Protein 1
Amino acid sequence: MKKLILASASPRRKEIFEKLGLVFEIKPSAKEPPIDENMNVKEMVLFSAQTKAEDIFEKNPDALVVGADTVVAMDGRVLGKPCDEIDAVNMLKTLSGRKHMVYTGVFVCSKNTKRGFVAETEVEFYNLSDDEIADYVKSGEPLDKAGSYGIQGGGIRFVKGICGDYYNVVGFPAAEFVRNFAKELKND
């Protein structure tokens, strides 16, 4: 297999790639795609993943480059990373007692491949008290997470259930990635 590059600085994606037994380099893309108001959430995350993968592929044309982007969405609205503690509290109050979707766009670029997919997982939260939310936000954990929570960390206590891939909620749909790109991971 050619050199595999993960175009992301996410420690969660790095850990998932390691769990998959992949040998890879991390070269994060700083490129952010322009926001297109005409795109739905799925189109947006796939376009963002594609932009990141293509950015790194341009500089590494002999590699297999993987770009990814994960967002939390509810009622058609994207809940990105909070800008501060107040924003995190408001997001968690919005998610309290409700279901939301987590979407991850994955895009792969190589000389032979330029394609991707979007994974989606439904997550349901318990009703959260103001104290639960305040304590979690004080921990600092939600401040760098889409939707203001990490299912793999302290946010696990809020999750009533999920329908779909757990690892997608963490930040990378591992099994779907391997199934979609098995050939490229072996031969590309």
Protein 2
Amino acid sequence: MELQAALEQRYSCRCFTDQAPTTEQLTALVEAGRLAPTACNNQPQRVYVVTGAENLDKLDNCTKCRYGAQAAFVIGFDTIEAAVHDPERMGGTTFSFGDQDAISVLVHMALKATDLGLATCWLGAINDNQLHLEFGIPETVAIRAVLVCGHPDPEKGGPAGMHTKRRPAEETITWL
């Protein structure tokens, strides 16, 4: 798939079939995330691949928004490894790039999923503390999102309505 087609076809899927992505597909997604750029190439991202009924049940304890997806990725960053800007360069404040690094990984994975004919939904309605408990994620890892993934159910919905409509460019973009 061409990149432009993936950009145009990607949407937030909220209706998945009960068919799980293959191990090969999941591996391709995590590889796409691994290739994402990170500040100073520190690569502090941490991706936890959630599959199987038992683990998906654990995930359901952390969010009510799985939408039946048969795989998910818990995405965060190691707070110790994330690049930090020197306070002198940032006007006296310290700034970690971990958030940007983690989201860069997520976007790469979501676009690759579209390329593979899968669908995703980026979840923000998650209980970070519960994710740490359910999956034994180290406290040094700041969780930033869950990306649910699977085969879209064409009979229950698809890329329609508010998920693909875009406001005119002149409403959201300003050239300076």
Protein 3
Amino acid sequence: MERRFCQSCGMSLTQEILGTNADGGKNEDYCIYCYKDGKFLQDCTMDEMIEHCAQFVNEVNKGLPQPITKEEYIGQMKMYFPHLKRWRKELTIIDAAPENPALAGVKDLIAKMADTLPITYISSVDEEDFPCTKAMLSPRVREGIKTFYFTTNTFSLRVAHYKTSPKASIYFCDAEGFKGMMLRGTMEVLTDAKSKEMIWRDGDEQYYPGGVTDPNYCVLKFTATDGRFYSDFYPRSFVIE
């Protein structure tokens, strides 16, 4: 059975602790501690919810093989919570030119994975020509299945790699569905005001105190040329025109 989590606090959901709608029926998205009678019980921001949940780190550690600190738990929640329904900001999708009809099924799979999976793995080539991979929050803007925009730190090692060599790949992994999607192409580092404003979101100040003009805030633009996916025990390569 698919495991479900409260889309407000991240708690594992069971039938016994489902919240309730205004009509008294069960709500399938939220727990009873967050949602009752069709309303949220806490009028709070995402960060305030994270601080509230952080006090239960000892309960969380009971189910972990290796205990984590409160600070580590907060860090994990800051990565995870933006993808919960209550806190999620919609992905911007820009209409692109029609794709090759032969790629219709592949296009739908790429779009679904890019829009729903919380993590994307991006790879670069280092100064010794070794591949380097890093987990990133999923793209904030995508144009069809060809172009994807990410936010990152200007002074990061990844940016240094891309400035030296634009060769890159991104990978979406649906572990539960046993599906993987790799796109290969190039990565550009953008620091112009228009690009930065396009993917800026309220709350980003916690990462970039200087706001949208913070010198440590930049945009990664990935442009795909081809890819390969694995689904239902079947691999397939394709070209993106």
Protein 4
Amino acid sequence: MRATDLVVTPKGVRFYGRRFPCTVGRGGVRVRKVEGDGVTPKGVHRIVGMLYRPDRMSKPADWAVPIGLSDLWSDDVKDPDYNMMVRAPHDFSHEVLRRADPMYDLVILTDWNWPYAVKGRGSAIFIHQWRGPGRSTAGCVAFRRDHLRWIAARIKHNTRLVIA
């Protein structure tokens, strides 16, 4: 493992010599994941993108992309664009990226089941803001807002999310 890796452990995430509390999926950490199970998948996942709400924060990194009013993420296995960012209107099941709450104000994208999604293996594993300590996610890894901002500013092209 490298110092530039985000390493998820039972005691939090190690990154650049620091440790940050985090939350993971309500289904725990497992090797096998399916759509809707709430599992955070074990493995080594590349960081492939960063999205942010420009109306709520400054650009967290020079390569971050603003979340637009119509940006969505498809989570419907029947959708030809399953596990991809799509735009409204969209006839398939999806997550709204521009949420009323602050959870997706900053989203770091991983390569879980992407770019060639296996239907039913589970849609995106994001790194995003948590709802609070100990409050699980739908399978993502989540942090306190200030910690997420600190991490986002230091992600490099070779940063990986390592879930042990």
